[in-house]
Amino acid sequence: MISLLVSLAFVYASFTFSVTCSKRGWRKKSPTVNCTFASWVLAFFGEWFVAVLIYFCRIFHWLIRPQAKPLRIDNTPVIVLVHGYLDCPTTWWWFKNQLQKKFSVPIRTIALKPALGSIPDIAADLLNQLKHMQRSLPVDNKIQLIGHSMGGIVAAYLVSNTAKISVDLLITLGTPWQGTWLAKFGKGANARAMRVSSKLLAAIREQLLGSDIRVESIASLCDNVIVPWQSACLPLNTLTSHNLVGVGHMQLLYSLSALKMVSGILADHYQSKSLTRPTTK
Known about the structure:
By secondary structure, this protein is an alpha/beta fold. 43% of the residues lie in helices and 12% in strands. It has nine helices and six strands. The chain has helices at 2-24, 37-59, 61-64, 93-102, 119-134, 150-161, 189-193, 199-209, 256-272; strands at residues 78-82, 107-110, 143-148, 167-173, 214-220, 240-244. Strands 2-1-3-4-5-6 form a six-stranded parallel β-sheet, with helices on both faces. Helix 4 links the parallel strand 1 (78-82) and strand 2 (107-110). The longest helix has 23 residues, at 2-24. It is globular, with a radius of gyration of 18 Å.
């Protein structure tokens, strides 16, 4: 119960900080967010609801764990979901379940370790897990990575620094590509790496430009963790951003709008790459 109260207090504090910064137009680099009062209220109460939902999901995680589809020995892609800072795979349960209804492909969640380690160390652990997964797949099977928050940074570092994994698509939700001011209050090397003006983040963005991997980012104008919210966008050539309104940071994993965007990107990607088309419902 204490952890739930802490989560609710964090939601209140983070929204207060985010709204204050957005109204003042945090520094001259970030214009004032064009987000209505109603949108902020919707995001705030939605984030509170999600905080309570996640709390009980972690307690009763065995009741909501869907049966995983087996890895298939054909040209069928594999979707891998990567969670964020101090989070766990259980948070993906709704999003994973909805994607599984739309696409007949194996979908896996990854537990990132160490929790407070550096981005390179966490990416190395992610690489080992993906390599273990890929051993049972043909070499032409592709992996699509979907990362939430820090998970997007870890996935981006991985794909931009190794050619050992066949990743051809990276989708990020609420990922601080240019850092977030709230990272100043975080613990661990990974939190320090997500601060504004981080050299590591700049290097990752530059490396992605030189890769053949398709990168799509989804951001929310009412994100209470990514401050300023524009940091979750990718203002670079060949990299695309999609924006939402009235959705908080954790809500991105429980948002029908975000799900629709991700599903559309996946369907378009499968068609453009001429991969074995998953059956959609």
